[in-house]
Amino acid sequence: AAKRARNGRQHWYAAHLDDEAGERLELIEDLRVALETGQLSLAYQPIVSLPDGRVVAVEALIRWQHPVRGAVSPAAFIPIAEQTGIILEVGAWVLRTACVQAVTWRDTLGAEAPGRVSVNVSARQLAEPGFADLVASVLAWTGLDAHHLVLEVTETAVFGGGQAVRTVQELHELGIKIALDDFGTGHSSLGLLQTVPVDILKVDKSFVETITMAGRHAVIASALIQVSQGLGLSAVAEGVETAEQAAELYRLGYRMAQGFHFGRPAAEPDFTRRMPLAVAGRPQAGRRPDY
Ligand code: C2E
Ligand code: MG
Ligand code: MG
Ligand code: MG
């Protein structure tokens, strides 16, 4: 803040912009190296059935252990990777790695393997006309059935129509399920749900955070589960951190949830070691939902 003082102001902005541009360039350079030298990894977070606590799916989340900066959050590097296009290579790596892991779980855990693996896909990937073919070839190469894969896209990515929507249609025709991530925070248009083949709504954690507070705070979470039910879609509540939130979500009609309360994202082999815990306990009444 001292640097912003009076005469230094103009200079500060220029220097600041340079810093930012330089920082971004460096991050992209480092990301290329990261891809080649194995600094990237995936963490897995369970998505659970509220009626019986079982793991119905697993979301793959990218992690970057930078040799100097330490852990770099995807929220920091994914947007930059998108703008420069390196997300195409990063995304392909994520997809291959997650599909290989899904096949490994099926081989080693059998019936206890998570039913589906959910992979985040960026707008830039959907805009590529060859993306569905790439996904098909990864499935063929790994031997994973299409119905064991879910691809998470954002409302904003498919809002404009065009190639992104065509890509989603192609993916859906392959038998892959489509989840709308962070639902309610983007270009929320309910009309989107009629033009894009969506199977799952992932209700954003901002609507879960306030749910156990007094007042009108559960209104949106409640409205969104009703929309999903009315349209015959599955719904997952994101960012569930407490038992109270889980209970309230269940009361509102939610049957699937994800969040620190059920399990933090964990790398292999920790994730698999914790899996039996996540699925422990005798199934209770209520049909297990389909993610
Ligand atoms: P997202 O897809 O909505 O993923 C959920 C994020 O919420 C993850 O953050 C997860 O760690 C975090 N989370 C899960 N449960 C809780 C909870 O109970 N409370 C709170 N406060 N947070 C929770 P993460 O791993 O830092 O990822 C951030 C975002 O980066 C993701 O949001 C996604 O948009 C993007 N991302 C992550 N991995 C990939 C990837 O492989 N490809 C692409 N394109 N984007 C990715
Ligand atoms: Mg996601
Ligand atoms: Mg999400
Ligand atoms: Mg989110």
TrEMBL record:
Q: Which organism is it from?
A: Paractinoplanes rishiriensis
Q: Which residues form the EAL domain?
A: 24-279
User: What's the protein name?
Assistant: Diguanylate cyclase/phosphodiesterase
Parent-record interval covered:
464 to 754 of 754
